[in-house]
Design brief:
The chain is about 80% helix and about 0% strand. It has about 120 residues and is mainly α. It has a domain of about 70 residues. It is built from four helices and no strands. The chain starts with a helix and ends in an 11-residue tail after the last helix.
Length: about 120
């Protein structure tokens, strides 16, 4: 059975790789075209350079700034199990934080002394 499934998944993997390569190439072409249009419109190489730099480099540097690591090194730093465990711990902490204020509120509410009836 696995011999008949393997060619199918090989084709699927190749299709995803081709789509990814086309996305990278088209992004590069779009960045170059935008820089070229800016150069023609404004006649300033610095403005064209800024457009090219922003479209090519800034998106990656923002990702590095947010995550603290290079995109291709992210998988080396944490395993799937670590990601899952931290996600579960985060959810449990959020659930405990949601429960804690209610219990604290109930504990801090002063109780009224019972009023004795005089009749």
């Amino acid at each position: 059975m696995s011999a008949s499934i393997e060619p199918f998944f090989t084709v699927i993997a190749i299709v995803f790789e081709v789509i990814g390569a086309l996305a990278m190439v088209s992004g590069f072409v779009i960045a170059v075209v935008l820089a070229w249009r800016t150069l023609r419109r404004e006649r300033r190489a610095h403005a064209a350079y800024l457009v090219l730099r922003t479209t090519l480099v800034l998106s990656m540097s923002i990702q590095i700034e947010i995550e603290g690591t290079l995109p291709w090194r992210r998988a080396l730093l944490t395993s799937g199990g670590q990601v899952l465990a931290s996600s579960i711990a985060r959810e449990r902490g959020a659930a405990r934080a949601d429960e804690a204020p209610d219990q604290t509120f109930k504990a801090n509410v002063p109780t009224r002394p019972a009023i004795a009836s005089t009749t």
